[in-house]
């Protein structure tokens, strides 16, 4: 089954809104409670003091996901480096996507963006699993400068979703800045699904696209992770 | 293990050591309900080691050491490096076998038992406090010189007040600051190394007569060999940083590889830099004149080679280096206190974390308070020697702990790195550490012994019921 990682700054009171457990009811969910510590504080020291409280909160969240019909477990990590922790646990649990929680009620319609250099097939198959046999509509958005090619990609993706009886609508944005196109289209949708982008200078300077989109759009954002070749990844880590 | 059943016990308040089963991976420590991310890489480890050491060895000691031993002070630094290396190798083995925060204290309490562990753990706390006070006084001298370079002459009377002010600042910033300064520390160390490589590279060329004006050769050891050894004991404070790497062992990624590289690597790098620095500075001025410049002699050496730009670069470098030494040691001190308090040898309150800032404010206060008291004394050499004394005791016992563990290897003992030249290296390491104690001034030895007796007394009163030997999580 498909696994979604839900990272939360658990001791800072981050939680999930009511709509998210329902949206993820078709998925395996791992709730990742993390607590970022300043470098003066050894993670172990924080664990002794906060472990019980954090675990209590995580068990409650786990229950919320299970009550909505999904299956869930949790991990608790004390760390100095949030991104490293999320990456490691995502690899560890072989998560296919992670969620930026946002705020939403019941989800009726998803905005799925296929913009950029991403594996379209992975996103459409993730969306198929996510929607399952529920009445959730999907808008497929593609912002591109290459209209004919974009149209082909979009049509193929629409076909693969329509095959599974999903109510799907295409939207092609030509010669528009991708981020603006996405945020303009986000109105009327309850959640966004997007692909993970390779880190770029832009993301280094301005923060990751996913986080900016989450901040602008309020609703939850599901980021489908790139497929990782496990052996290559292992070697890369040994070298770093 | 046969004594596993007796592990634990309780202190006078009825608290027991918190010892839980854990699984160590290269990227995290996994306990029953939680994981602890390992976030420090090799460069972070080297930055802690080098950043702690370089301030003292290069920016404070050259003048003092040359005054005592002449150009042979280079030999004193070389002896220090050799002793440090003989200890860094066994320390690396122990650290890879027990990659836990707490460093020397952890290895000795697990390898030799609770009494030596308690003495070392608490002595390490005071050793770090003395070392930090010493770095801060060094900072004070550089702060005064900085003002002088800026055209504000305030005289040495302001050294101690400035050191106190900065010491209080470091403590407060560590309690309230939540921004990670680790990247800044890496940058500072990289900057310092670049300044030094340029400076020492040019200075060495000059000293051997390839550029500039040839200087009159001086007798290498004008005061004989004994001062070389006593100076080695004094300047050993410039090699204490590698053990600070071990206090963050629990937070280091791939500890089997990175811990030995960071500890041994930082000793080798600073050792070479120290010897080169003494060589270059005694060539520039002759040791007698160098000695008259005192704690900030390096500024004059910089001026000699590069004019006022050189002086400014060294003053700036000295400020950064003594700052980073002081800051890194305050962090290590609070970790040392935490490790001891986790094992119920200090009241549990000591490891309490502040709810507002998420920082261990009690431990930081227990570091900062005594540090300020010691800074106020302003006695650079005494502070340095007592710091070395307390660390050398730890180092000697650490080698003994390695020998004890190796002779009768417990099942849990499985280091990734094994010391080359066993048993010669740890035996020499122990002998050299203890021997160096003998070359210190009597007053430093007395202060050191008094502190150790006090810690043993505290153990007898507070933690006698605690048993830690072989208590590996």
UniProtKB/TrEMBL annotation, chain A:
Stored SUPFAM superfamilies = Adenine nucleotide alpha hydrolases-like (SSF52402)
Query: Which ranges carry the UspA domain?
Result: 157-225
Q: Which InterPro entries match?
A: Universal_stress_UspA, UspA
**What superkingdom heads the lineage?**
Archaea
What is this protein identified as?
A: Amino acid permease-associated region
Q: Which organism is it from?
A: Natrinema limicola JCM 13563
UniProtKB/TrEMBL annotation, chain B:
Species: Natrinema limicola JCM 13563
Mode of membrane association? Multi-pass membrane protein
Region annotation Disordered: residue ranges?
1-22
Q: Does the keyword Transmembrane apply?
A: yes
Q: Which InterPro entries does this entry report, sorted A to Z?
A: AA/rel_permease1 (IPR002293), APC_superfamily (IPR050367)
Q: Which PANTHER family match?
A: AMINO ACID TRANSPORTER-RELATED, INNER MEMBRANE TRANSPORT PROTEIN YBAT
Segments passing through the bilayer: 46-66, 72-91, 112-137, 157-175, 187-205, 225-249, 261-285, 305-326, 357-376, 382-405, 417-437, 443-462
Q: Which Pfam families match?
A: AA_permease_2 (PF13520)
* Top-level taxon: Archaea
Which keywords, in A-to-Z order, does the entry hold? Cell membrane, Membrane, Transmembrane, Transmembrane helix
Compartments reported by the entry: Cell membrane
**What is this protein called in UniProt?**
Amino acid permease-associated region
Q: An example Gene Ontology cellular component term from the record?
A: plasma membrane
Annotated Gene Ontology MF terms?
transmembrane transporter activity
Can the keyword Iron be found in this entry's annotation?
no
Major site of localization recorded for this protein: membrane
């Amino acid at each position: 089954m498909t696994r979604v990682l839900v990272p939360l700054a658990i001791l800072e009171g981050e939680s999930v809104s009511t709509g998210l457990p329902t949206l993820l009811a078709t998925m395996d969910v791992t709730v990742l409670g993390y607590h970022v510590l300043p470098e003066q504080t050894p993670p172990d020291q924080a664990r002794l003091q906060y472990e019980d409280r954090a675990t209590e909160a995580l068990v409650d969240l786990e229950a919320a996901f299970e009550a909505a019909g999904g299956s869930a477990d949790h991990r608790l990590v004390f760390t100095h480096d949030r991104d490293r922790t999320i990456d490691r646990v995502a690899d560890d649990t072989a998560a296919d996507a992670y969620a930026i929680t946002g705020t939403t009620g019941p989800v009726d319609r998803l905005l799925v963006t296929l913009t950029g250099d991403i594996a379209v097939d992975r996103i459409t198959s993730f969306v198929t699993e996510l929607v399952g046999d529920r009445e959730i509509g999907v808008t497929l958005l593609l912002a591109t400068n290459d209209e004919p090619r974009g149209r082909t990609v979009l049509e193929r993706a629409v076909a693969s979703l329509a095959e599974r009886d999903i109510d799907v609508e295409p939207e092609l944005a030509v010669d528009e800045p991708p981020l603006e196109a996405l945020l303009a289209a986000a109105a009327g949708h309850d959640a966004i699904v997007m692909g993970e982008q390779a880190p770029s200078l832009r993301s280094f300077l301005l923060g990751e696209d996913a986080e900016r989109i989450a901040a602008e759009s309020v609703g939850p954002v599901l980021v489908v992770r790139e497929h990782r070749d496990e052996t290559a990844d292992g070697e890369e880590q040994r070298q770093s | 293990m046969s004594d596993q059943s007796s592990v634990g016990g309780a202190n006078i308040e009825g608290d027991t050591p918190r010892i839980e089963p854990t699984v160590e991976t290269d990227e995290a420590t996994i306990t029953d309900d939680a994981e602890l991310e390992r976030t420090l890489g090799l460069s972070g480890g080297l930055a802690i080691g080098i950043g702690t050491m370089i301030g003292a060895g290069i920016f404070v000691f050259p003048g003092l050491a040359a005054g005592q031993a002449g150009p042979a002070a280079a030999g004193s630094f070389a002896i220090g490096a050799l002793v440090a290396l003989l200890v860094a190798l066994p320390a690396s083995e122990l650290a890879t076998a027990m990659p836990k925060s707490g460093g020397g204290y952890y290895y000795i309490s697990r390898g030799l038992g609770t009494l030596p562990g308690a003495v070392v753990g608490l002595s390490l706390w005071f050793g770090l406090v003395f070392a930090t006070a010493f770095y801060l006084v060094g900072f004070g001298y550089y702060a005064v010189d900085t003002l002088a370079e800026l055209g504000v002459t305030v005289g040495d009377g302001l050294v101690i007040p400035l050191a106190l002010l900065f010491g209080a600042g470091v403590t407060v910033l560590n309690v309230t600051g939540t921004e990670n300064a680790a990247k800044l520390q890496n940058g500072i160390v990289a900057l310092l190394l670049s300044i030094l490589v340029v400076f020492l590279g040019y200075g060495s060329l000059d000293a051997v007569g390839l550029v500039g004006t040839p200087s009159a050769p001086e007798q290498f050891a004008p005061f004989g060999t004994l001062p070389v050894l006593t100076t080695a004991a004094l300047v050993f404070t410039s090699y204490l940083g590698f053990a600070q790497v071990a206090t963050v062992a629990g937070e280091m990624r791939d500890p089997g590889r990175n811990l030995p590289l960071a500890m041994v690597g930082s000793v080798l790098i600073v050792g070479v830099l120290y010897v080169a620095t003494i060589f270059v500075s005694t060539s520039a001025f002759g040791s007698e004149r160098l000695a008259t410049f005192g704690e900030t002699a390096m500024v004059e050496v910089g001026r000699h080679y590069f004019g006022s730009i050189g002086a400014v670069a060294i003053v700036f470098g000295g400020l950064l280096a003594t700052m980073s030494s002081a800051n890194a040691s305050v962090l290590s001190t609070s970790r040392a206190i935490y490790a001891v308090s986790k094992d119920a040898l200090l009241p549990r309150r000591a490891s309490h974390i502040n709810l507002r800032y998420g920082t261990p404010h009690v431990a930081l206060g227990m570091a900062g308070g005594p540090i300020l008291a010691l800074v106020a004394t302003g006695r650079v050499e005494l502070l340095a020697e007592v710091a070395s004394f307390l660390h050398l005791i730890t180092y000697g016992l650490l080698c003994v702990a390695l020998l004890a563990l190796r002779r009768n290897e417990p099942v849990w003992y499985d280091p990734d790195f094994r010391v080359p030249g066993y048993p010669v290296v740890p035996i020499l390491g122990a002998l050299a550490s203890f021997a160096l104690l003998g070359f210190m001034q009597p007053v430093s030895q007395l202060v050191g012994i008094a502190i150790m007796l006090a810690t043993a007394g505290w153990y007898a009163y507070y933690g006698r019921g605690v048993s830690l030997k072989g208590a590996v999580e």
